[in-house]
Amino acid sequence: MPKTRINISLDQDLADFVKIFAMENRTSVAEMVTQYILALKRRTENKSAEHIFADPAFQEAMERAQDKLKSGTAKWHSYAEVFPD
Hints:
Blueprint: H1 12-24, H2 29-44, H3 49-54, H4 56-71, H5 79-82
């Protein structure tokens, strides 16, 4: 999906905090804002994470992933393989 730019203004102390928080958590400010807005959108559409986590298909997928990790059969990919340019 194409992205668009939105400019926001924050108090300097809040801007400093969010930049440091993003850096410490190896993410970007844009990704933090995106995740917050997606959570808000899901909540307003009654598609909260609790509903996703409760879905039997999600539970099954998580169990399969855990089994692969525990058994050592998980296949690891580089970032470039998963997210090509």
